[in-house]
Design a protein that fits this description.
The chain is α/β, with parallel strands linked by helices. 30% of the residues lie in helices and 17% in strands. Strand 6, helix 8 and strand 7 form a beta-alpha-beta unit. Helix 3 runs parallel beside helix 4.
């Protein structure tokens, strides 16, 4: 097997590992890392949750002293700053990794090439761009927020072939299948927020949670566009199973809602 094919094989494995953090790593990017020594994987890791060790640290912990002289395959540029955890590039340097293959550079201002620069200054061979498209698709939301200052938005619309979402008299009926509804909850779980308007809240009283996990702490932020603060206090979006943000007109106030601790207003 050629070196190029071997590199792609290990990077695809790193992408598989990064995928494991799809529903838990937010708002951080999903990252996977594979450490290889003499064509053998000696360590694997992914970023599980914000505030916990990054993918590189988990892989280094698994590899131990075998990491010295190894090649690291990372789906995103190793961080170069002290956040909630120390810089990953320093950990790779201190472990004696001799080569680092990176799928995508990290545009986050505190990284943005600094991790690559530090690795190279330490004498490590750094290669960039292998399976970059796949790595960036995995982190489309994070990259959109950093590069454009805007979230990555997905629209979920259940409608009939004639463009209807309910009966003519306004009664709502199931249009989508049980399988598609299950799929929607999986997409919810991998998102940072779920947004809807007050019309939907009043008509359907949705819960807007991701009901495919027993850990309700994973349910994303619920955002309600409610200019006149018409959200009923008994609405399911105020059931305390997930945080809720209501966006309203600044001139509108409601003493009942402002005293409610289940959501924030802005």
């Amino acid at each position: 097997m050629s070196n190029t094919l071997s590199d792609e094989l290990y990077m695809r494995r790193a992408l598989e590992l990064a995928e494991k953090g799809r529903c838990t790593a937010r708002p951080n990017p999903k990252v996977g890392c594979v450490l290889v020594q003499e064509n053998n994987i000696i360590g694997e890791g992914w970023h599980v949750r914000a505030g916990t060790p990054h993918a590189e640290i988990n892989a280094l912990y698994q590899a131990g002293s075998q990491a010295n002289g190894s090649t690291a395959y990372v789906t995103l540029e190793p961080c170069a700053h002290h956040g909630k955890t120390p810089p990953c590039c320093d950990a790779l340097i201190n472990a004696g990794v001799r080569r680092v293959v990176i799928a995508s550079e990290d545009p986050f201002p505190q990284v943005n090439g600094k991790g690559i620069e530090r690795l190279r200054k330490a004498g490590i061979n750094v290669e960039i761009g292998l399976l970059q498209k796949e790595a960036e698709e995995l982190n489309c939301g994070f990259l959109s927020r950093v590069r454009r200052g805007r979230p990555w938005v997905r629209a979920k619309i259940g409608m009939s072939l004639d463009g209807r979402t309910a009966l003519a008299d306004g009664r709502s009926k199931w249009i989508t299948s049980a399988k598609s509804r299950e799929d929607v909850h999986k997409w919810r779980l991998s998102s940072c927020a779920i947004l809807t308007g007050i019309g939907t809240v009043l008509a359907d009283d949705p819960q807007l949670t991701a009901r495919v996990s027993h850990d309700m702490n994973l349910s994303p932020l619920r955002i309600i566009l409610d200019s006149q603060l018409r959200t009923p206090l008994k609405a399911k979006v105020l059931d305390k199973t997930a945080p809720t943000l209501i966006v309203h007109h600044p001139d509108v106030q409601d003493i009942k809602l402002t005293r409610c601790s289940t959501f924030m207003m802005s």
